[in-house]
């Protein structure tokens, strides 16, 4: 069975989990965009001033990419570990979905705010500062959430209904999947730390 067949089988068997995760993530994005649109004028001004100062500092200061890499890696690792731990609990599903909602909210809020801050020109800054790393982050977070929800649901069925067991093969596949996702996350962190700052500096110089 090739990779495509495995993905198709996984989707058919866990369709409800895919639906739940995507719904919560998309609702989070919508709420984030909504929050920016109806944000208090004082808060909007403060954020705009802060971000303007941040973009100006990009042009005159050197980004410490290694330090940035470690900070982002720690932040991502905390979220990943929490999702994995929740997957090993019986009642982890609602908390995993809440994390997906928050991640979607953060993404929607940040992207919409950048779009509105520079009156249209912000789309380029939003693209170079958010899109490159999230090409890796978003699918990985969604996949990790689905895997953890599936694992948590299996433990729930086994504990309360004596249905479904987790054999050694499944555990090995789980470890392999998480290992692959961790590598993808690290790739995203590398891009966010070493590539995005240079792209942002280029775009900011053109905007200003």
TrEMBL record:
Among its keywords, does the record have Transmembrane? yes
| InterPro entries to which the protein is assigned, alphabetical | SpoIIM, SpoIIM-like
Q: Where are the transmembrane segments?
A: 16-36, 72-99, 111-130, 136-153, 174-195
Keywords (alphabetical) are: Membrane, Transmembrane, Transmembrane helix
The record's section on Pfam families has: SpoIIM
Signal peptide feature range: none
This protein is called Stage II sporulation protein M
Q: Which organism is it from?
A: Clostridium lentum
Provide the organism lineage as a comma list: Bacteria, Bacillati, Bacillota, Clostridia, Eubacteriales
**Gene (UniProt):** spoIIM
């Amino acid at each position: 069975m090739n990779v495509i067949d495995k993905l198709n089988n996984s989707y058919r068997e866990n369709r409800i989990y895919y639906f739940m995760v995507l719904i919560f993530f998309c609702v989070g994005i919508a709420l984030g965009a909504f929050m920016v649109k109806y944000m208090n004028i004082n808060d909007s001004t403060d954020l705009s001033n802060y971000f303007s100062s941040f973009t100006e500092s990009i042009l005159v200061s050197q980004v410490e990419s290694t330090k940035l890499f470690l900070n982002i890696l720690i932040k991502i690792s905390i979220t990943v570990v929490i999702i994995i731990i929740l997957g090993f609990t019986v009642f982890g599903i609602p908390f995993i979905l809440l994390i997906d909602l928050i991640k979607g909210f953060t993404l929607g809020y940040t992207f919409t705010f950048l779009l509105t801050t520079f009156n249209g020109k912000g789309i380029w800054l939003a693209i170079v500062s958010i899109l490159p790393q999230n090409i890796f982050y978003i699918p990985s977070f969604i996949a990790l959430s689905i895997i953890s929800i599936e694992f948590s649901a299996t433990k729930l069925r086994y504990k309360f209904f004596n249905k479904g067991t987790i054999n050694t093969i499944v555990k090995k596949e789980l470890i392999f999947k998480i290992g692959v996702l961790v590598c993808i996350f690290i790739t995203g962190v590398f891009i966010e730390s070493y590539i995005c700052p240079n792209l942002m500096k280029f775009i900011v110089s053109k905007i200003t």
